[in-house]
Each structure stands twice: as structure tokens, then as C-alpha cells.
User: Which sequence fits this backbone?
């Protein structure tokens, strides 16, 4: 595996835009999914559920890992912040994984309508990752288990590489922080490799996260204390992310920084769940949502007749 060139960088960035758009559309829209006409109040779901704040970071990590490990059949991804399910659902749909267990989730206009309308919808997709999703084994609201699951997947499987995305709020749980001790037990050549990625976006629910408030040196020393080598990544610099993955680092622990709610109308704690509360009744919020969706220029990435254009 080697660092990617400009074409691959562009493809990764387009994928992030694509899945960011679908993440927003799933949370808000029950119709007009391609913005073929001016957004109207009746296009908005009657009840808005979901967690937007972490979605951009999930899409950044997923897109970069997907590109770098595309030729490795033994690579796997474990998602800690499973409440960011719109992002996971978008990626699984785009890759055709969702269609393997749900015939309605075809990778075309029909399937796009389906995943957007039926997200957080009666008899549809839940707002959190759940075991009905391909590869999911725990409910997405149960933070803390991801790192232990990643090590468990690698136990006795030296061929495997598992990347695990850990939320910065999630790392405050006893289960998550204690799971980092598993690294010390994975010696020798009988086990696979775990790549922890701390998603440092600054906030958990409505409060600052502890690790985002630590000095860089302090966080680095904590990571080193568990036996890892810290490597900071600018999440919105795809070239930096790919370079980090390509570096020959002994026991890397990646610290990926993105802004919570990046791309949306609100940032930080205001973006944790649904950043616009009343677009179904409020004209200003409706226009804000329309501008937000248009900012992704989705018409460059998907065509109603031709499908995905990445």
C-alpha cells in the first residue's frame, strides 16, 4: 500500500461530500431528496431524530480508510460512535453492502429515496446503528465497547487489520479507556493489528469533552503510556490522512481532529443531534436547510438516470 495521488484524493473528498449530503437528507427529508424543486415544509419529516454532529468525522474516517485499504480483504472497520448512524448507513448503501440484506436499498435513485425516507421512520431504519445493519453487533447508543471488539476481532487472526473509530466522549467511559490496555496483551505474531483512531471533535452531547481540552503534550503522553505512538491528523486534509496511514509507525494511535457539526449551520454542542429543530414550520430554518444541502453540490455526484458519479 502506498500514498495516493491527486485522483484518489479527489475521489475521497467527493465520497465525503456524497455521504455528508446523504447523512443530512436522512435526518431531515421525507421527499424532494435531490432538491429538484425548491424545498418546502411538506418535504420535512414530521419528527426529526438523529445525530448529525459526529457524521462528518465518521465519513472522513470511512472514506480515507476505504481508499487506503481497498485491496486488503482482511481489513475491517469498527465504529464507536454508532449514534452517527446516518453516516454509516450512507456508506454501506453506497458500497452496496446494505442491498445484500435489504433488496429495497439498491444503489440507484430508488434506493436513495428509500434510505433517506425510511431513516428514523416507522418500520424503517433506527436512528442508531443496530444489529439489522450489516456487520453491526451492538446497538449504536452503547458507547465504550468498540475498542474491545476490535481487539477481539484480531485475536488469533494475524492476517487482520481492524481500524476502530473512538469518539472523544466515548473515551471517557471506563470500558473504552480500559480497553486500551489490551494493546499490551497483543504481543507476538499470533494476532492481528488494531488501529485506534480518536475522533477529537471537541464535544459530547452538550458539554466539552475532556480529551479535547487536554494539552496536546498531555494527550500524547497518555497515549504513549498505553504503549502507542500518537499521530495527529487534520481530518479535513485528506492528503495528511493518507500520509499518516502510509507512515511506518510502530503501534500507531491516530488522533483525528474535525469540528463537531462541520459543514452544518451550527457547530459544537448545538450540532450534536438535530441542529435545525423546526424547518417543518420555520421559514428561516427551512431556507437554512436548503442552503446547507445545496452546499454539497450533490448534482455533481449523483444523477437521477446515471446514478453515482464518483
Assistant:
Amino acid at each position: 500500500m502506498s500514498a495516493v495521488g491527486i485522483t484518489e484524493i479527489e475521489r475521497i473528498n467527493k465520497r465525503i461530500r456524497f455521504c455528508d449530503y446523504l447523512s443530512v437528507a436522512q435526518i431531515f427529508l421525507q421527499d424532494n431528496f435531490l432538491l429538484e424543486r425548491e424545498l418546502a415544509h411538506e418535504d420535512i419529516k414530521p419528527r426529526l431524530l438523529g445525530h448529525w454532529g459526529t457524521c462528518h468525522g465518521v465519513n472522513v474516517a470511512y472514506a480515507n480508510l476505504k481508499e487506503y485499504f481497498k485491496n486488503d480483504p482482511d481489513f475491517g472497520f469498527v465504529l464507536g460512535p454508532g449514534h452517527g448512524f446516518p453516516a454509516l448507513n450512507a456508506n454501506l448503501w453506497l458500497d452496496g453492502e446494505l442491498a445484500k440484506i435489504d433488496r429495497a436499498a439498491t444503489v440507484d435513485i430508488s434506493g436513495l429515496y428509500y434510505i433517506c425516507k425510511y431513516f428514523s421512520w416507522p418500520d424503517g431504519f433506527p436512528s442508531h446503528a443496530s444489529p439489522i445493519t450489516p456487520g453491526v453487533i451492538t446497538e449504536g447508543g452503547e458507547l465504550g465497547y468498540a475498542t474491545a471488539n476490535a481487539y477481539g476481532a484480531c485475536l488469533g487472526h494475524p492476517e487482520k487489520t481492524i481500524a476502530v473509530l473512538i469518539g472523544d466522549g466515548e473515551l471517557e467511559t471506563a470500558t473504552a479507556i480500559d480497553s486500551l490496555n489490551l494493546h499490551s496483551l497483543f504481543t507476538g505474531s499470533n494476532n492481528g493489528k488494531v488501529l485506534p483512531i480518536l475522533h477529537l471533535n471537541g464535544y459530547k452531547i452538550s458539554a466539552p469533552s475532556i480529551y479535547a481540552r487536554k494539552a496536546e503534550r498531555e494527550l500524547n503522553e497518555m497515549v504513549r503510556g498505553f504503549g502507542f505512538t500518537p499521530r495527529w491528523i487534520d481530518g479535513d486534509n485528506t492528503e495528511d490522512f493518507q500520509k499518516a496511514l502510509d507512515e511506518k509507525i510502530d503501534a500507531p494511535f491516530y488522533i483525528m481532529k474535525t469540528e463537531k457539526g462541520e459543514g452544518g449551520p451550527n457547530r459544537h454542542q448545538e450540532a450534536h443531534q438535530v441542529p435545525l429543530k423546526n424547518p417543518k414550520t420555520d421559514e428561516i430554518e427551512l431556507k437554512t436547510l436548503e442552503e446547507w444541502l445545496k452546499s454539497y453540490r450533490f448534482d455533481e455526484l449523483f444523477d437521477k438516470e446515471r446514478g453515482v458519479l464518483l
